[in-house]
Amino acid sequence: MNQPILAVHQLNKSFGAKQVLHDISFACQRGHVIGLVGANGAGKTTLMKAILGLTTATGQISIDGQSTSFDHHEVLHEVGALIEYPSIYPFMSGRDHLKLFAKGPRRHQRIEQTIAELHLAKYIDRPAKGYSLGMKQKLGIALAILNDPKLVILDEPMNGLDPQANKELRELIISKRQAGTTFLISSHILGELQRIADDLLIIDHGKIVKQTTMADLLAASSHQLILSTSNDVKARKVLTKAGYQLTEDPKPTIQVGAETKLEPILDVLSQQQVTVLDVQHHDADLEDSVLKLLDHNQLQKEG
Amino acid sequence: MRTLLWQEAFKLLKKKSTYWVTIFLIISGLGQAFLEKLYPHNKVLTAPMAFSSSFGATTWLIFIMIAACATVLSMEFQYGTVKEIIYQQYSRSTILISKWLVMLGYSIYLYVMTGAVALLGKVLFVNDQFSLTAIDPYSNHLTFLQQWLASMSSSFMTLWLVLSVVFLFATLFRSATMAVTAGIVAFFAFNAVSVLMFKLITKFNWVKWNPFNFLNFSNQITDPARHTLTQLSDTQLLIGSLGYTALFLAIGLFSFRKQSV
């Protein structure tokens, strides 16, 4: 079963004269969490809407090996989603929403299981019109996972969630992923995404500018050694002379590779009577890496 | 389709207004029948006349069904729930048709319910004023019962002609306000412009085929003299009403199938 759960090939979408998706192609492997990252207006939601048959687009989309489109999307019974904001009927309770959209056998058990997994029991029987943003968001996520879909598409699922709910959602996604569910998640909260995503799609101005694994992206990003010494000014001079690449930081901060050894650095400084008091490692996180990538892409365009 | 029908029925039954409408129509129907008992000699609205419109229910039903059909689609756009519905496995056509069918079922329920209330009101309050099997002197020699049934079924056809316009506007503009306005204008403004329309028909015979003329179907059934104004037979009005209803629904369906959300 190596067939990707979702495959998108040369997807294009325009609103009038403005093209918002340009030849988007990617595949999502089963049981992975794929983070979709990009600035506002980059085309993330439009891409998700095209996959879900909500908006027209040209190109090929297949889910679980079956082709799907705006007009014919029977295969979407394998998909759960939360797009833009949770859609709630104000005249119904949360439980009514779950009853409304639950399908197939064992409906009742799945409703109860979903309520337990997302900790909704306290308010699930109250009218949804009185729900806070976070409660609505959790109900929207509950609806997305309710029917045990193979693919779950979540657009900014952490919106409005408190830290506890965020943690619960992260744990839920991880446990569902282990059970084989694939997630395509767009989020601006890159710290959260860094903790759950296996793969990344970085989209800018409607184009995929990077498709990689989280591990590869972080490994390729910069690592720094930040030194505290008895004489920082002298230490900077010594290290520069020794050929190390320093940042502009007044503290001696060395740009190093992932596998750099500390001993030669300490040696060169001690030979010049500079004592090293402390060494801190700083690895670039997803936010740094993505911003750098998007900056680089912008510069290339302008160049 | 079964799932969609179930979902639409579930939503309808979860709305409190669905129950209030039933309670209101029962009270209104029985109330008007009771008023006929209190004022048996009034000439403005005699008991048989009031009974022929199920004690006023057929007019209320138009308002109620216009509101119900306008909101059944536009609420999905207003609440954003249209996305939840579309990214199920069903096609847009099936989604819209299931809404039509549930509204059709709802309108049939309301007609049957108000009909039952009218019969109850007749038996309870005005049973001594006329007999259902007596001939209505103002109709085509029909009994009051036949007259009542003909009036109900023809007003049902006219109602659905109006509702097809409501569905069309709800689809095109995604707004309940626009759809309700279209329905109200289609039905009530028609009465205001009908004099002008009948004059035009006498001058240009082909004007009789315009959709507004077909709103006369139920009027013509209860008042056969209207034939001279509409220039169409009852059968032509029936077929035309069905045709225009199908046409407006089809345009709405075509538009909905193309809509991105």
TrEMBL record, chain A:
GO terms for molecular function: ATP binding. Residues 6-230 form the ABC transporter domain. InterPro entries: AAA+_ATPase (IPR003593), ABC_transporter-like_ATP-bd (IPR003439), ABC_transporter-like_CS (IPR017871), P-loop_NTPase (IPR027417). It comes from the Bacteria. The keyword Transport applies. PANTHER family: ABC TRANSPORTER, ATP-BINDING PROTEIN (PTHR43335). Belongs to the ABC transporter superfamily. This is ABC transporter ATP-binding protein. It comes from Lentilactobacillus fungorum.
TrEMBL record, chain B:
The lineage of its organism: Bacteria, Bacillati, Bacillota, Bacilli, Lactobacillales. PANTHER family: INTEGRAL MEMBRANE PROTEIN-RELATED (PTHR37305), MEMBRANE PROTEIN (PTHR37305:SF1). Pfam families: ABC2_membrane_4. The keyword Flavoprotein does not apply. Keywords: Membrane, Transmembrane, Transmembrane helix. This is ABC transporter permease. The chain crosses the membrane at residues 18-35, 55-79, 100-125, 145-173, 180-201, 237-256.
